[in-house]
Amino acid sequence: MPLSHNQTGTVDQDKAMSKTENNHTVLFAVAATAATAGALAGPLSSMVHRAYKRHRHRKHTHFTLGSWRAREYGQAVRYLLAYLELPWKDRFFDMGPGPDYHQLAWVDAKDEAAHDKAVVPFSAQGLTTYLVVEERGWCQMGREGKRKGVKHARTIMRYLGRQYGLIGRNVKEMEAVDLLLDELQDFTLALHRLVHNPSYAREKERFFTTALASRLGGFEDWLLNEKKTHKKSSPTGGLWLVGGRMTVADFVLYDLLSQARTLYPPALSSHRELQDFTYRFEALPSIAQYLGSEACQLLPLFMVKVV
């Protein structure tokens, strides 16, 4: 059943999670038993713990993701929330019309947020992508829910990665994820400079066939190296960027490849490994549900109009 959003962008949690609720209830019981008896250890214990945490968060944690109304802001976070099957609400802000694209919308929101000390979604430069996490329900034992705010898309990705075991299993993998996130930030900035360039129409093809092609080649080489490194030790080796299993870096890479492919359809034509990566990502059940949802399809790619 596809994920459904209401008119305010809220994920319909009851419908989206009904198929998996029984499984997570069982995992909840297993995790509780393991915590008491110490019956599970190592990777299996970690897997059950993450499943238990997702189960608890579905029922008792509410997420609000705030950003400008465009996929260029915070979309990788949405992919990650969808993959984890966590309920969230999007709060979008609209920039003014071009050529100035004023950011007055965030001024009113900043005044509103000033009354909530747990939420600090703003910087001196304007609105940043932010995530509000609010715990509710039995775990608060009648008290008002705990609230915290995390700002900046990459910081949010690292926060969720730590919470759900998608940041790397050891120091070496964590360092690789950090390196990739920095490299992907450079990729992000390059795309932003292109679409905001007054000469976009003239520069687009040259950018995608030269500068970006070289950058994409680097990520393709990384995947090929992962495939060689983990081919024998892991059946999923080389499918994802780090350690043969998914990390937050995979979500950011897919987001940027999707943007590039939308702007310039042949962008990945010479990069078979990256094409296969996008197919694998899109075939993940929870990702496929989100990609097919109205909320995802109606969101524009960029704030500015590109041709």
TrEMBL record:
The chain crosses the membrane at residues 26-48. Residues 61-168 form the GST N-terminal domain. One of its GO terms (molecular function) is glutathione transferase activity. Keywords: Membrane, Transferase, Transmembrane, Transmembrane helix. Residues 170-302 form the GST C-terminal domain. Its EC number is 2.5.1.18. PROSITE patterns: GST_CTER (PS50405), GST_NTER (PS50404). It catalyses: RX + glutathione = an S-substituted glutathione + a halide anion + H(+). Pfam families: GST_C_3 (PF14497). One of its GO terms (biological process) is glutathione metabolic process. Conjugation of reduced glutathione to a wide number of exogenous and endogenous hydrophobic electrophiles. Belongs to the GST superfamily. Mu family. This is glutathione transferase.
